[in-house]
Amino acid sequence: MKPLNRSDDIEAIRSSNDIVDVISQYVSLKQSGKNFKGLCPFHKEQTPSFNVNPDNQFFYCFGCGAGGDVFSFIMQIENMTFPEAAEVLAERVGMSFSVKAGSRDSEEFQKRERLYKANSLAAEYFHNYLTQTIEGKAAREYLAQRGIKPKAIQEFMLGYSPNRWDGLMNVMLKKSFSAKELENAGLILANRDRDSHYDRFRDRLIFTIWDHMGRIVGFGGRTMNDSQGPKYLNSPETLIFEKNKGLYGLHIAKDEIRRTGIVVLVEGYIDVISAHQSGIKNVVASMGTSLTEGQVNLISRYAKEVLIAYDADAAGANATLRGLDLLRAAGLYVKIISLPSGMDPDELIRRSGATVFIGLMEKALSLAEYRIELILDNSDISTVEGKSKAVRDLINFLVTLDNAVEEEEYAKKFARELGISEGSILIELEKARRSHIKTKSIENKFPKNNHTNVKNTNYTNNMKAQSTSAIEKAEKMLLYFIIWHKELRIEVEERIGVEGFTNPQFRELAAVLFKNHDSHEGALLLKKLNMDFTNTFNVGMTQLLAEISLLQSDVEYKKEVFDDCLKYIEKRILDEKIKALDDEINILFNKGDKESALKRLQYKGDLMKERGKLSSFQGIS
Questions:
Q1: Is 343 within the bounds of a domain?
Q2: What is the pTM of this model?
Q3: Do 93 and 195 lie in a common domain?
Q4: 592-605 in b/e burial notation, b at 16+ Cβ within 10 A?
Q5: Which range marks the domain in which residue 56 is found?
């Protein structure tokens, strides 16, 4: 495999990943003329407006404005930064790419690949023991008792580790893996006293763990009786497995999560499997009770709303609380599913069916409602001291909402629950609110240095903020023409210049085109520009190039449309000058400087005549 770690090697990754092939893994595409079309994966639509151009290697949706090259697509669909997308695309075609230049050499890449391979073979070994051997019978019976069906066993590649000290190790050694590699993969353990090794997982039900890209990174082993040590035994941290950055089942659930915008977060492996086989496909597990920042970052790539369905016990409630602040800080809307006491999602679904669980999802409590319930459950409201503490706990939470309407509504509801006057709570709330505002004001004087990931939002947000006006259409069409017809670039530069474009990104692109007015045209120029902008992580510009490259214009009338666009912009420039003159003339008249005012009026008349010579803009279909 060829290692890549320089920006100029980005083109090698791009040229090796055909955009139609990559996007076809996510979107059903049909050929339409020179382009391919399909339903946009970034917004709901009934009529396809998502276009992929194989010649220029761009995509663009005329419905929502998403667009760009193959890097942009992976960034948007997987919600990744540019370096992350480059790494995924490089690995897709057998190349190595360093997220941080120099941080990973080819030797480390090879080590990672060996670990993936070892885990994949181990998963097959465990799965075959579960499904094909007499030794796996007890594990099969256990799964049957838990209601896990054969289809789910296959989909989640469940397995069984036989009760042998070196069963897996001997198989893997025969497949040319060294003991050191297997130890690094977390599959075997070293006995330093005897200078030997033995299997980590023995006589356990095995849960295969994937990362969000569908690569096997580790395993979870569960005992089927109480005499085998810890109930769960998981793979250790390895070069490819970090438990606090993974979510069990995400590789299967991410499409449904992306489609609905909602993720259901549970605690255990079987909770996920039980939900999926019952038809609830957007469920993942945090593989432990404490939600981490890494897991929250992963969730935010796919979902806007999180429904937490942890066990209805004290540990589950504490785990829920630990995760709430992280989820809110990531800008996610959080709701809590209230499970019946003593039940986990798996047991509820097995006993009562998926419909009941879905009903609880629909009735999930908002963050504030959940907090209020916990405060009431943990307070002795039969005493004055208990009520006072409950009010303090509530107010300390409410002021963090930074929403006066919500604060007051929940305060009123809480007052009714405690049987006290609303006024007393609202007075205390107002005091706390003023203190909170003062604290925030002080904090804002010393803002934190937040480093935001490079994402493909600049251009999309800019464009959505503007109406698709005639000015915008005219400017885009001019950029389209001067990309494909280099002889027009000097004319546009002389007549309107860079400042003739209103959008900052349009101006940036126009400046590059004017500077290189004798360079290539069309596909070659698009390729060069796209590579330049990609190498500087200017994703917004690659998205703009994608949209412009897919603009269609009737060749027979292109000069007429070009003239229309140029005249329309010239007229807009004159309108702005005339408006500025009107303001200037009014000021001069108010000052009594009639002579200067008349001169400006004369100049305005000249501009009006010039404006009158320009035909009106006909628009672009």
A1: yes
A2: 0.65
A3: no
A4: eeeeebeebeeebe
A5: 3-97
